[in-house]
Design goal:
With about 425 residues, the protein is α/β, with parallel strands linked by helices. It has 14 helices and 20 strands. It has a domain of about 240 residues: 2-Layer Sandwich (Dihydrodipicolinate Reductase, domain 2), CATH 3.30.360.10. Bound molecules: nicotinamide-adenine-dinucleotide.
Length: about 425
Amino acid sequence: MTSAPPVHGVALVGCGGFGTFVLDAVRDLPGLRVAACADADRGRAEKLAARFGAPAHGGLDEVCALPDVDVVLLATPPAAHADASVTALRAGKHVFCEKPMALTAADARRVAAEAARAPGVYLVDHVLRYNPVLRLLRRLMDEQLLDPVRRFAFENDAADEDLHPGHWFWDPAHSGGIHIEHGVHFFDAANALLGSAPTTVQGTDVRREDGAVSGGGTVSGGGVVDIVVATAVHPGGAVATHTHSFTHAHRAERQLMRLDHGFAEARVTGWIPVHATVTAWTDDEGAARWERLPSRAQELLAVPGLRPHGGESVTVRVARDAGSAAPARGRGVSRTVPHRVDCVIDLGGEAAKQQVYAESVRAALTDLLHCATHGGTPAAGAESGLLAVAVAEAATRAGHTGTTVALTDVLPAAEDLSPAAEGESR
Ligand SMILES: NC(=O)c1ccc[n+]([C@@H]2O[C@H](COP(=O)([O-])OP(=O)(O)OC[C@H]3O[C@@H](n4cnc5c(N)ncnc54)[C@H](O)[C@@H]3O)[C@@H](O)[C@H]2O)c1
């Protein structure tokens, strides 16, 4: 007979748009009970608490004093994350913190130090670490079907339609700026996919101008930085470029993550990845291995706590002898790879985005609860969270100053942190 899982009481602090999404995503997790909802805006807390039959509170301190709260979900704007995480960890709670972990690497380090001391488990909600498409690509690299990433490029044409000029997103004091607030997801994803944090980062900021635009309408919120670009060089010479442009209507949003694996290329679409194509040149043995992938789709896409909807697929087509049998060379590497592979990984396209998004959040909390019950470190733990914030801070500084910023300027070299190690733990 298996014993019932322990019941964990969770309290949400920050009952805004994303906090509500998180609570809805995790509400039916076995062994979870919504024990409290808190917000500086008491009315908001009361409204959400009523939906879950939980008590409403005004803030973190009240929640930390509740004995039936085991896990604190922090979904306030970013500036509050570091202090709140430290307070909750010191109160003996597990912490599920929305990204970013902190506005600066120094603050993230404070949280990481507390997480290392405290009995509670700490996790940053870096949802991409729980995304099935990225897990599959990481697994293919681990199995050496794909070579390591040598170029990572993320292009994000993001929406600003709901980001009115007074929104905290535009105020670096509250959000940290675009690289910290949003770019951190992709710095973390790059660290996980490349298996290293970058050594140096260059940046460019572009400011919005106020006024009328051709074709009608006006651009408002003049002066804010709404386009940022960062170029990060990783050990071994792999390069990652990150471009975020918060300048689009929702319907015109688009994202592309392009991974150059040398003899193969992956193109991942959706900021929550829902679809990818991989083209690869390979030999006889590789072709046979690629052809076996569809039968392994379930295993390759599996993420504990994430419930597939059943329509996910991996398809592979191999064009044998599509290229010459003579050795092909790139960067001094010579291979006999006459066969061309076209692989499509599909979670259901854009239509599946909300489901994949919610399930990734559910998988992240599953990871935290698993570690709380059985021990271990979550895939999106404090160490990788700290590194992601450090890269984001370096990119922000580089964009402001137009200089190249070394990661060691932000994060002293004494830190011996490995971003891949956490990500591979589960
Ligand atoms: N992981 C993801 O994919 C993802 C996606 C969107 C947003 N987020 C993150 O979620 C967080 C919240 O974003 P949002 O869009 O829901 O913001 P929001 O403005 O909609 O909600 C924030 C809420 O926090 C409350 N609040 C502010 N300071 C507080 C404090 N000190 N104590 C208690 N309550 C406080 C506000 O009253 C508000 O209700 C941000 O950190 C954001 O970056 C993460």
